[in-house]
Amino acid sequence: MIGLVHYLLVAAMLFVIGLYGVLTKRNIVAILMSIELMLNAVNINLVAFSRFINPELLLGQAFVVFTITVAAAEVAVGLALVFRVYHDHDTVHIDKLNGMRW
Amino acid sequence: MDELVYTIAFYVLAAITIASAIGVVTKTNLVHSALLLALCFIGISGLYVLLQADFLAAVQILIYGGAVAVLIVLGIMLTQRSKMNDTNRDIGQGKGVGIICGLFMALMIIVIATTPWHYSTSMVPQDTPSMIAQLLLSHYMVAFEAASVLLLVGMMGAITLAKGGSRE
């Protein structure tokens, strides 16, 4: 019997994988992709809670619509920033973008 | 029988999702990572179908599998000048970060396993899109309008950033 716990575990694994990617990757686009993984893990959690805790209200699903909206705006602005950084510094590797290092 | 099919479908979709997510963070070719990311999004939309969120499954494929994946591939193509091999290296400290992530995962498992969940026995309504639409246009009207303003501002900001101001 597949229950809420299974979905929460899948979402937790997805979140941890995304966290690992954010912390280890050196390419800005790869970091954006890992952030997308983490956002999707949160969406799975919201839909699973909506399905198993109070299915008749659909509040979790309505919330996921807003999350997807914010994520889409985040990707658009993030990639525009990446283009800008690439145009100004000729690189997207964060090791070389150390102008604000202490 | 129905139960068995549901269980198999869940494990297959979960395996596709997790395996392609691991591929996203371990592949050294950035384009392979982006394509596996699209596969991961499609697996997640399958999980939404299993959770009886049919509208969100369609939205997931349209926005994530379509728009976001294509946008990221475009971003890769515009910011890589030479060959794609070895464009997605990670830092040498993968082991330490892995230990931290493993500890976080263990913490999450403990929290999920020990929390007493209050399950509901009622069913999901058949017509989810119209119910979501009623929620968005009545109770969450203000948030809905704010989201539309956010999209507009995000679009304008993206255009301004990508276009770039004049240097002088």
Task: Kindly describe this structure.
- The complex is a heterodimer of chains A (102) and B (168).
- Helix content of chain A is 75%, strand content 0%.
- Chain A has helices spanning 4-24, 28-52, 59-89.
- Chain B is mainly alpha-helical and 168 residues long.
- Helix content of chain B is 76%, strand content 0%.
- Chain B starts with a helix and ends in a 5-residue tail after the last helix.
- The model of chain B has no long low-confidence stretch (mean pLDDT 89).
- Chains A and B meet through helix 1, helix 2 and helix 3 of A and helix 1, helix 2, helix 3, helix 4 and helix 5 of B.
Radius of gyration of chain A equals 17 Å
Low-confidence stretches of chain B: none
Major sheet details of chain A: none
Question: Major beta sheet of chain B, specifics?
Answer: none
Over the alpha carbons, how many angstroms does the gyration radius of chain B reach? 21 Å
Large-scale geometry of chain A: elongated
Label the overall shape of chain B: globular
Task: Considering residues with a beta carbon less than 8 A from a beta carbon on another chain, report the largest interface and each chain's count.
Answer: A-B, 71 and 84 residues
The ordered string of helix (H) and strand (E) elements of chain B is HHHHHH
The proportion of residues in beta strands of chain A is: under 5%
**Main structural class of chain B:** mainly alpha
Kindly name the structural category of chain A. mainly alpha
What's the rounded overall pLDDT mean of chain B? Answer: 89
User: Helical segment tally of chain A?
Assistant: 3
Task: Count the beta strands of chain A.
Answer: 0
Distance between the termini of chain B: 71 Å
Quaternary structure classification? heterodimer
Uncertain runs of chain A are: none
